[in-house]
């Protein structure tokens, strides 16, 4: 039964990935048949997240997020870990390290219960070789995420109340009373505000009914 369930969501994830890629540019059905043969499903323990990569390793896999989140963190000297990015459902997660073949300097963390499709560097080399049009597709995807990153950074430069409201509206799963996906000290590094400011803004927004607790 377990294998059947895994295969069931694996197929649905592949279909969602195909729709996502086609939203950039329509691809040949043969590409998706090939990806279905090489992309492996990865189920993260629902009670504990998983560190996919640490800073010393070359990131030799890319991921498509079917469910859950992948968080990218970096160790900042004398400051501890800072959250750089939070990728959610229907996102493709990769890194410069994937192509450069160098240690990334980053942590890649998958939240509890995340469901991912993973593809290795070598498998992607084969994809590019067999389907040359995917080079252009990769550029389109990279450009899209670069634009999204710039938009996010512009929002994070606004006043704290706007930033906190934006975050919980776009990432409602992080607003829980218990079993938080990201602790306040780490979340505040992503929002570029102090932890105390985060708590005060969140309380104010909750009281005003502008954000609501997420019920799993």
Task: Characterize the structure shown.
47% of the residues lie in helices and 20% in strands. The chain has 216 residues and is an alpha+beta fold. Strands 1-8-3-6 form a four-stranded antiparallel β-sheet. The chain has a four-stranded antiparallel β-sheet with strand order 2-7-4-5. The mean pLDDT is 92. InterPro entries: cNMP-bd_dom_sf (IPR018490), RmlC-like_jellyroll (IPR014710). This is CRP-like cAMP-binding protein.
Query: Largest sheet, if any?
Result: 4 strands, antiparallel
Give the strand content. Answer: 15-25%
Roughly how many Å is the radius of gyration?
18 Å
Determine the mean pLDDT.
Answer: 92
CATH superfamily of the largest domain: Jelly Rolls
**Estimated helix fraction:** 40-55%
The strands making up the biggest β-sheet line up spatially as 1-8-3-6
Number of helices: 8
The count of strands amounts to 8
Oligomer type: single chain
Structural class: alpha+beta
Protein name: CRP-like cAMP-binding protein
Provide a concise account of the structure shown.
The protein is α+β, with helices and mostly antiparallel strands and 216 residues long.
């Amino acid at each position: 039964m377990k294998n059947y369930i895994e295969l069931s969501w694996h197929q649905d994830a592949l279909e969602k990935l195909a729709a996502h890629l086609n939203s950039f540019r329509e691809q040949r059905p043969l590409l998706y048949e090939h990806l279905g043969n090489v992309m492996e499903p990865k189920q993260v323990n629902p009670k504990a997240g998983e560190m996919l990569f640490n800073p010393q390793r070359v990131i030799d896999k890319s991921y498509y997020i079917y469910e859950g989140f992948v968080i990218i963190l970096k160790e900042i000297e004398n400051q501890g870990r800072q959250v750089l990015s939070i990728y959610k459902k229907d996102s493709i997660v990769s890194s410069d390290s994937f192509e450069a073949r160098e240690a990334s300097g980053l942590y890649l963390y998958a939240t509890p219960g995340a469901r991912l499709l993973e593809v290795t560097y070598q498998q992607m080399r084969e994809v590019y070789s067999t389907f040359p049009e995917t080079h252009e597709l990769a550029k389109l995807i990279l450009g899209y995420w670069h634009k999204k990153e710039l938009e996010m950074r512009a929002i994070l430069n606004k006043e704290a109340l706007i930033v906190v409201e934006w975050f919980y509206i776009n990432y409602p799963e992080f607003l829980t009373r218990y079993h938080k996906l990201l602790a306040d000290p780490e979340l505040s590094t992503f929002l570029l505000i102090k932890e105390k400011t985060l708590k005060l803004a969140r309380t104010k927004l909750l009281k005003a009914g502008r954000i609501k607790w997420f019920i799993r």
